[in-house]
Amino acid sequence: MNRKLRGLIFTVPGIIIGVAGATSCNKIADAAGDISAAACGPCGTIASGDFSVSGDAQLDGFFQAVGNLQNATASVQGDFQANIVALATAYGVDATAGFDASLTDKVIAAIKADVSANLDGGFKIAYKAPACQASVDVAVSAQAQCEAKAKCDVKVNPGQASVKCSGTCSGGCSGSCSGDLSCTVTTPTVDCEGTCEGSCELSAAASCDGTCHGKCSGTCSATDANGDCQGSCTGMCTGSCEFKAAAKCMGTCHGSCHVNQGSAQCTGSVQCSGKCDAQCSGGCQGDFEPPSASASCDASAKCQAQAKAQAKASLQCQPPRLDLDYGFKAGVKASAQADFVARLGVLKVRAGAIVQGAARMTALVTGKVDGNVVFSPSPVDDLTASIKGFASADAIAHLDIPAGRLGCVVPAFVEAGTDIGNIASTTADTISAQAKFVGYITTGS
To answer: 161: which of 88, 93, 257, 434 is 20 to 30 A away, CA to CA?
Structure first.
């Protein structure tokens, strides 16, 4: 376990016990002489999902962030294992015993063997890493809940949730949005005046820098059982083109349409994909400031840190852009080509989910996606420092903890320190296995 967390676990109980003294729940009464229900009763725990531990909104918010972080990493691990088992089934790898540490290596080897047996030159890969953002909705909700517990007059319209984002905003922007691709339309189908990221339903035969799905007037690298092109086309493509990268679409864009307007206001169904100089709704990559949910609230500033911690622990990542182009070897029969294309369909879906999950896991644990820092400090490090910051008699004394709840705080601190420390050890094997698979599927080697 992390040395700092060991110190946190063994130091906090003594501090809190010293503050609590010999006070018992039965001896606590409010100004009117009545026993305070908020000060008594069973202690909440992170494991049970009951985060009403201390009665102090700030501290309980951090305990909830620990729970969110645990749930997020466990979800990614479970999804990764399920996707690897599904790929094992598709590629004939024995997975009857379920997931184990060696299964990822076996699946990668089976895919490589399939590619080597059928393709000329392997995969040609176009890849764009997932983008990960902290949830604006979670930040606003956590801020409102904290202020409500502090007896502020909270009034929040969930449909207008927003934060001041100092990084990259992915969503609505109430002011001007600027960046390389300032505004993005993400409807299922759209006539795109900018560049289309995804696939283009062609209105007429056109060249296709990517994968042609339909008829090809030249040579197609791969065809399906019906003779339609499902690969790169040296001539003109009729049907749809799955772009390798964002490009001009002469037809209808299925995916994201990027319009570079310099500094523009993104409203309605148009989302900001850059720097927002006002309020951002949706997601924020980088630092942000949750707004107060009340017109007048003394606890607003104190609530922001736990709101940010909960939002970062609940971060989400968009799917990656992953295009696998290829050409069959001479002599590969049509039936074998059809079988390969079927396996490839499973691979694309499962690989995309694995890459997306790997980005989320590393963003949570290290603050990085594909080696690039997106959160500094990482959600794990940020939460560790925040929890440790409460581990002093002075910090505890400044919190609004009913005396009868002080006994609940001791085990909760121990639980939080243990849980955060365990995240690194329990996710290490998954992160390593994810890295192997992502390294192969994004480079072909």
So the answer is: 257
Q: Name the DSSP class of 320.
A: P
Three-state DSSP state, 60: helix
Assess whether pLDDT exceeds 80 at residue 265.
no
Contact status, residue 201 vs residue 255, Cβ threshold 8 Å: no
List pLDDT tens digits, range 173-196.
Answer: 888 888 765 678 776 678 887 888
Answer yes or no: is pLDDT of 401 > 90: no
Eight-class DSSP state of 269: T
Query: So what's the pLDDT on residue 202?
Result: 93
Residues 6+ apart with CB under 8 A from 119: 326, 327, 328, 329
Residue whose C-alpha is closest to residue 246's, from 195, 281, 285? 195
What does the pLDDT look like over 150-162, one tens digit per residue?
Answer: 888 887 654 456 8
**Which residue has tokens 């799917």?**
319
List Cα–Cα distances, 188 to 130, 175, 251, in angstroms.
19, 25, 14
d(CA 424, CA 73): 10
Of the candidates 128, 103, 107, the one whose C-alpha atom is nearest the C-alpha of residue 442 is 128
Q: Which residues contact 220 (CB under 8 A, 6 or more apart)?
A: 212, 229, 230, 231, 232, 233, 234
> What is the share, in percent, of the chain residues with pLDDT greater than 90?
36
The total number of residues written for the chain in this structure: 445
- Specify the amino acid at residue 128: K
Distance between CA atoms of residues 287 and 255, nearest Å? 28
Give, in degrees to the nearest 5, the angle at Cα 93 between 92 and 94.
Answer: 115
With tokens 């994201």, the residue in question is 256
Of all helices (H) and strands (E), which one includes residue 159? Answer: none
Residues 307 and 146: beta-carbon distance below 8 Å? yes
Token reading at 430: 């998954």
Residues 30, 404: Cα–Cα separation, whole Å: 12
Q: What is the pLDDT of residue 216?
A: 95
pTM for this prediction = 0.78
Q: Which of 98, 73, 114 is nearest to 440 (CA)?
A: 114
